[in-house]
Amino acid sequence: MIHPALPHSNGIAVSLKELLSYQKNKPAKASQGMGGRTLAGPYRSLIKGRGMEFDEVRHYQPGDDVRSIDWRVTARTGSTHTKVFKEEKERPVFILVDLSDSMTFGSTLLYKSVQAAHLAALLAWQAKQRNDRVGAVLFNQAEHLELKPKARTTGVLQLLHGLCSLQQQQPSIFQQEDTKLVAHSHEQFTAELTRLRRLAHTGSQIHLISDFASLTEQGEKQLALMQRHNQVSAWQIEDPLEISLPKSAKGQLKIRSFFGESLLNLSQQRQTYADAAQAKRDQLSHRLKRRAISHHTISAGLPLLEQM
């Protein structure tokens, strides 16, 4: 699974050297907004709550927003004064990274969990270059890490070490009964979203990195609560085999999943497979859109920087 664009990666277990390499990438300009490149989207100027902080009070000038008039100072001095705000210099950035069983899969280049770690590293380094503080919630099937926001390189490094630690612990799939494993995954994902909501300060930038296979209605409610006072972006990690079957594939394929075993006729069901995959993606996009959360897709079958 080694790729020339990823000389330090075996595609299965992420290394600290891989994640450190994203430090050299410059952040996208906020002015690019959602119309710019994929990774520029989450950095558009959408400030909520403590995303803006009070700077000073000065005399009112033509063109100032009347909603910012400081009536107490105006009454005391007898002349109109207005409050001036500035963008927080150290905005909290929280990154949730799903490294659970459904992310431990890769058919082409990388495991989805490895690509998730790469994306988290890139977003963290860009946040650091913007002088933002970086915190995170990381979890696999067995445990989680809660990292409070820290400034400068300290915040990024605690994230990178946590990613390597949890991603390299490859959980053994199917150790439990399939139905129990599915229920545990759904409950865990909701619990991690709840944990992140309580951790994130008002006005934070929040990145959710997952395949969202375990997103339930209860999880959506946590997303809605998060979005009220923060800017939330969802990054869906996909594997090429989840989107379409290889054109060269023929015959029947035995599939084992959480729901049991079955046979897939590769020739006859290729289009049905692709249509079902697209419908699933569209459904997730709709669920996130109704919560006012931006939705991005990242393939685990291509180097991350080629998808910018």
From TrEMBL:
InterPro entries noted in UniProt: DUF58, vWFA_dom_sf
Highest taxon, organism lineage: Bacteria
Record domain DUF58: where: 56-281
One Pfam family per UniProt: DUF58
Protein name per Swiss-Prot or TrEMBL: DUF58 domain-containing protein
UniProt source species: Motilimonas pumila
